[in-house]
Amino acid sequence: MIGLEGVVVDVEVDTGPGLPAMVIVGLPDTAVQESRERVQSAVKNAGLFYPRKRVTVNLAPASVRKEGPAYDLPIALGVLVAAEQIPAESLAGSLVIGELSLDGSVRHVRGVLPMAAVARQEGYRRVFVPETDAAEAALIPDLEVIPVASLAALHAHLTGLARIPPHPTLTVEDVDVSVLTDFREIKGQEHVKRALEVAAAGGHNVIMTGPPGAGKTLLARAVPAILPRMSIDEALDVTRIYSVADQLPPDVPLVRTRPFRSPHHTISHAGLVGGGNWPHPGEISLAHRGVLFLDELPEFGPRVLEVMRQPIEDKVVTISRAQGSLTFPAAFMLIAAMNPCPCS
Question: How high is the pLDDT of residue 45?
Answer without folding.
Answer: 95
